[in-house]
Amino acid sequence: MDQPGLSEGEHSHALAGLGRINWWSRSDAIVWPVILELARRRTGKPLQILDIASGGGDVALSIAARAKRAGISVEVDGCDISPFAVKYATQQASNRGQEQVRFFECDVLSESLDKQYDVVMCSLFLHHLDEEPAQQLLKIMSQSTRQLMLVNDLRRSRAGYGLAWTACRLLTRSSVVHTDGPLSVAGAFTVNEITELAGQAGLSGFQVTRHWPQRWLLKWSRV
Questions:
Q1: Quick one: fold of 8-155+190-221?
Q2: How far apart are CA 7 and CA 161, in angstroms?
Q3: Cross-referenced InterPro entries, in alphabetical order (predicted)?
């Protein structure tokens, strides 16, 4: 979806397809238990959450919906480098009656965030980056969170490649997703690689856990 000249119709179709893939693979369910645990330990102000590279907004919106069902007060923001993705996500929030979830345009690798958050998370974006910018993103995320940092991403493996190829064709007709899905797995980090990368980014005490389907979750807490 980073290719120049992509029409709004193709972009919208691709974001919708990725939303279905995120729903099927339960991307929000990978990060939610950790967020819930933190929220239950807190009292007072709402938990402030930022989803970096939020795309079509489906993970941020799902987290906000889960929090509402659990009776937990949260403030959820999403940011993305793409103006169209921000526009699309904002419309999705309106369609779902979740206008309180805010989306804004920001390239976090070159622009400063205007505030810190209790939770800074990122889902299915790190595999788009080479090692140096990926390490930079981890540093930025750790500096931008007051308490918790979560990175949920693809795990490079033969099984993951086959699963991505199949799921992308079953869940969406978007040719962009058909191409990007398998390529994303091919460019993703293994558990050993993300562990090494997190250490190089200066994180200590982090945890990396494996999740279905062919995912890993990097968790780092300031406290």
A1: Rossmann fold (3.40.50)
A2: 27
A3: Methyltransf_25, SAM-dependent_MTases_sf
